[in-house]
């Protein structure tokens, strides 16, 4: 399996890994066919993500896509992240082999869920 | 630059330099077709028959009982379909943990009206002889069971299995692709009628293999054409490759016992080193009745492909038990048959050692694997 240098770099040195205490939004993405699971935590300031962190169970590409996903999320507006497509995640890891596209799917789903959770909490407050 | 450590010898091995040297003349001055009557053909034929003699000597059988093929898969197909074609109908007994070359051949025969029983295995991956005894029916035409499983390395009780098949007068086919040249095989004492073996697991080239067929075993050819291999397998023989197979097994006769002892020590050093420093890890396969160089471990709540990738980035080649294909996960059917829960089976990694493996390699692997598993577990939201 050939992976991009960007993907390998994220796998070797995952950015923003680990849970976040008292986040403003939390969301999970799952890809049931392969049991991969990503959980994203967002810290929000003025409607934009100030910090994103992740936890994940899955293959190397999924872990790398989570790491890249936290960088995509940082600075972005919640409304934008609530609709984020898997292509943005795939681009952020320098592409994915066809057999590993689920990595982008699971991360996009987790980011969308976390952004929606943050938006829902904002409305309550 | 990382150290490079190859721990995937159950998948394939590098060609031994002596094997390569033996093969080289058969690509140039001895290139003839072994079926030709002229001198070029005779030269090739001599190489081919020497290889047959080398295999026969290792197995302590007659060279007329050795048929060469293009791979272990073809050997399994020939053995099983050859018996089925001769009998035309009936019942076959095999196990749930066979190689796909056996499982899919049996499944194909089921579509052609044959009945097949797939025996389960115990927690170590071992067939229970008493279950074989119970599975045998009056119309059973063949028992086909592997000598050792490629994933976990458990050695099957072939001697006991052979005693049962002999008592019932049923031919026994043994897929010995993973054991040929690695552990002793006595086809006469074990009561084996057909035995599949291959070249590239024992430092020979890929694309050459064979089937031992005990004299008097009633079977039909499944590939038709010329009169090669005494009409049991049509097709021009890969002479250079088979010369390599012959030399490889000759070497194994010399090296096997010493290497088995050395690899058993290294295999146990790897497991002990990992077990001492990693929590929630288990060894798969029989603790002692196992291929000398095979160490299959499960790391709970870690996905095996992420371990394999992490080790690969350190220059270490291993293989994942679970395979993620087109986004759907396939846990190892062998581990599932052994009763492993999914949260364990998903994290299996096979290390298969070989003649080049050193103690320094093993220590390097332990030093790479321990922090890698810790790091992957730290990333995971899934906790035990």
Fold topology:
The complex is a heterodimer of chains A (125) and B (384).
Chain A: H1 5-12, E1 25-31, E2 36-45, E3 48-57, H2 60-73, H3 78-81, H4 86-92, H5 102-124
Antiparallel strand pairs in A: 1-2, 2-3
Helix pairs in contact in A: 1-2, 2-4, 2-5, 4-5
Chain B: E1 5-6, H1 17-23, H2 39-59, E2 66-69, H3 72-87, E3 91-95, H4 100-111, E4 115-119, H5 129-135, E5 140-146, H6 158-168, E6 172-175, H7 187-190, E7 194-198, E8 209-213, H8 228-231, H9 239-277, E9 281-284, E10 294-299, H10 304-312, E11 316-317, E12 319-320, E13 323-325, E14 328-330, H11 333-337, H12 342-345, E15 348-352, H13 359-379
What do you see in this structure?
The complex is a heterodimer of chains A (125) and B (384). Chain A is α+β, with helices and mostly antiparallel strands. In chain A, 45% of the residues lie in helices and 22% in strands. Chain A is built from 5 helices and 3 strands. In chain A, strand 1 (25-31) and strand 2 form a beta hairpin. In chain A, helix 1 (5-12) packs across helix 2 (60-73) and helix 4 packs across helix 5. By secondary structure, chain B is α/β, with parallel strands linked by helices. In chain B, the strands form 4 sheets. Chain B has a 7-stranded mixed sheet, sandwiched between helices. In chain B, strands 9-10-15-12 form a 4-stranded antiparallel sheet, with helices on one face. In chain B, strands 1-11 form a two-stranded parallel ribbon. In chain B, helix 4 (100-111) links the parallel strand 3 and strand 4. In chain B, helix 1 runs antiparallel to helix 9 and helix 9 (239-277) packs across helix 13. Chain B is globular, with a radius of gyration of 21 Å. At the A-B interface, helix 1, strand 2, strand 3 and helix 2 of A face helix 10 and helix 13 of B.
């Amino acid at each position: 399996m050939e992976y991009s240098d960007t993907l390998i770099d994220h796998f070797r040195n995952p950015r923003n890994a680990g849970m976040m205490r008292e986040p403003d939004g939390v969301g999970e993405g799952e890809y049931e066919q392969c049991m991969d699971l990503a959980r994203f935590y967002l810290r929000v300031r003025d409607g934009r993500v100030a910090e994103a962190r992740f936890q994940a169970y899955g293959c190397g590409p999924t872990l790398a896509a989570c790491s890249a996903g936290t960088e995509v999320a940082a600075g972005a507006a919640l409304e934008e992240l609530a609709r984020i497509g898997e292509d943005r995640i795939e681009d952020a890891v320098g592409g994915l082999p066809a057999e590993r596209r689920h990595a982008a799917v699971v991360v996009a789903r987790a980011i969308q869920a976390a952004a929606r959770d943050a938006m829902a909490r904002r409305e309550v407050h | 630059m990382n150290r490079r450590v190859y721990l995937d010898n159950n998948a394939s091995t590098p060609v031994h330099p002596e094997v390569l040297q033996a093969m080289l003349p058969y690509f140039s001055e001895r290139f003839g077709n072994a079926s030709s009557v002229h001198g070029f053909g005779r030269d090739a034929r001599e190489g081919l028959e020497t290889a047959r003699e080398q295999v026969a000597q290792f197995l302590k059988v007659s060279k007329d009982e050795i048929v060469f093929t293009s791979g272990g898969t073809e050997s399994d197909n020939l053995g099983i379909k050859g018996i089925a074609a001769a009998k035309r109908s009936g019942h076959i007994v095999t196990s749930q943990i066979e190689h796909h070359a056996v499982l899919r051949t049996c499944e194909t025969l089921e579509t052609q009206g044959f009945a097949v029983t797939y025996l389960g295995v115990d927690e170590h991956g071992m067939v229970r002889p008493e279950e074989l005894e119970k599975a045998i029916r009056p119309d059973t035409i063949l028992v086909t069971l592997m000598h050792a499983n490629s994933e976990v390395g458990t050695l099957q009780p072939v001697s006991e299995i052979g005693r049962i098949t002999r008592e019932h007068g049923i031919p026994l086919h043994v897929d010995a692709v993973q054991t040929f040249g690695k552990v002793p095989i006595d086809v006469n004492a074990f009561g084996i009628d057909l035995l599949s073996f291959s070249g590239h697991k024992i430092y020979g080239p890929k694309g050459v293999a064979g089937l031992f067929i005990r004299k008097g075993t009633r079977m039909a050819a499944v590939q038709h054409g010329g009169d090669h291999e005494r009409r049991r397998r049509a097709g021009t023989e890969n002479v250079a490759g088979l010369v390599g197979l012959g030399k490889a097994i000759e070497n194994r006769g010399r090296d096997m016992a010493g290497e088995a002892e050395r690899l058993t020590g290294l295999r146990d050093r790897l497991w002990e080193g990992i077990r001492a420093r990693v929590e929630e890890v288990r060894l798969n396969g029989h603790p002692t009745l196992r291929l000398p160089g095979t160490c299959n471990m499960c790391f709970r709540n870690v996905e095996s492909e992420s371990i394999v990738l992490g080790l690969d980035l350190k220059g270490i080649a291993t293989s994942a038990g679970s395979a993620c294909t087109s986004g759907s996960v396939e846990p190892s059917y062998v581990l599932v048959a052994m009763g492993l829960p999914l949260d364990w089976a998903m994290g299996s990694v096979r290390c298969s050692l070989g003649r080049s493996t050193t103690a320094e390699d093993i220590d390097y692997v332990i030093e790479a694997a321990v922090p890698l598993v810790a790091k992957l577990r730290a990333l995971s939201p899934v906790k035990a």
